Amino acid sequence: MTSQAMGHRVLVLGAGVLLLGSLGVGAASATSSTDNTCVEVTTYDHPRYDHPTSSPTSSSSTTTTTTTTTSGGLPPITIPGGPTITIPSITLPPVSAPSDTLQDGGGQTSSPLTGSSPVDSGDAGPATPPGDSGVQELRADDPAPGSGDDDSDLDEGPNSLTTTDRGEGYDSGYDYDGYRGPRGSYGGVSCYYNYSVGHYWYDHRPVGEVRATQVKRVPSGGVDTGN
Amino acid sequence: MAVAEKDPDTKKTTGPSMTNISIFLIVVLVLVALIAGANSGSSGPNSPPPLPASAPTKVTVPSISAESSLVPTGLQADDSLEVPPVSQPMQASWFDQSPTPGEVGPSVILGHVNGGGQPGIFVKLKDVVAGAQVFVDRADGQRAVFEVSRVETIPKDSFPTDAVYNDTANPQLRLITCGGDYDRGARSYLSNVIVYADFVEVQRV
């Protein structure tokens, strides 16, 4: 087998590996909030997103998003004995709700198990995402860590809106930050993560480690409704 | 032999073709995975927008033929939930420190399982199953429709305070009554039946 043929096989194998990895990302983003360990504590639109009155337009082809896409290009693939292949960034076509456009651009896309947050190896202390000074302080009106300012596909420019622009600061991509996985030695689960799709953001935290603020006063104990 | 004399350029033309195919495959698969992940995520975007605050006026659980007006109740001196008078077991109440039904957060509605020797409004609450609908009429003329996600019977001494009262991403509803074994000495049930429901629709009353 020539080195070039071997290189082609390696490339095809790489495609398969990427397939499995990317499917893993998809599955991770679909993590439900209905399990007994993690609870989806906040969901919010981008504050400047202007909801359309009819079905959302399927285009978000602003200069900003295009520029962002190029910054998120895939690293070149080097095949032993073969040519170096540079894969350009991928621009995904627009999709309907919940997000208007999915792009692989500025947003980080990573598996929860390989997230950038430290893994809590102890039994007592919860894992804390970087930059998060206190998990229990995260509230619906607090932007999630990494959810905005450091996302390069935010249109922060002074330009006025176009017919397809969702507003300056509109996050058109997918992002993920946090950790969900085994915790300590007793089988608990850490689930400190948040992700976004389009203009929606989802924050997840473990049940029992989230304060109740929507209920103004939390009762103590059970309810006595029978005798 | 002619067979042995292959055109040396043949492989050169095959290589780029396979490379392009591989790149195309990668792009398509990543695209499919991302779209699948986006569409199978939380139900947040598929739920109706949350409603503004408006006092609830009536609760209806068609699957158990329960229907009652709602009165606001708060907390007792010991911080336990106040409940409707036991002399009116068919009266349900809304915990007025919780969001109104349709607002973001867990709205809490209480009802007796029995009282004064008579069955209460939620005597059959334990028979509610996932997928059942619960209607809550509001003072603003809107009806918040909820769909039951799960039903639990939990001992009162391990009441799931977090699951019931913690913040939620969307409007949710909790229906709570007594259940489980009955302690005749304490004249009290030992457990609570808790119905968790998600906001799925808005109707005009």
Automatic annotation (TrEMBL), chain A:
Keywords, alphabetical: Signal
Region entry Disordered, spans: 44-181
Biased composition (Polar residues): 109-119
Ranges of compositional bias, category Low complexity: 52-94
Span of the signal peptide: 1-27
UniProt protein name: Uncharacterized protein
Automatic annotation (TrEMBL), chain B:
Keywords: Hydrolase, Membrane, Transmembrane, Transmembrane helix
Pfam families from the UniProt entry: Sortase
Domain of life: Bacteria
This protein's record includes keyword Transmembrane: yes
InterPro entries: Sortase (IPR005754), Sortase_dom-sf (IPR023365), Sortase_F (IPR042001)
TM annotation in the entry: 21-38
Name of the molecule in the record: Class F sortase
Species: Actinomycetospora aeridis
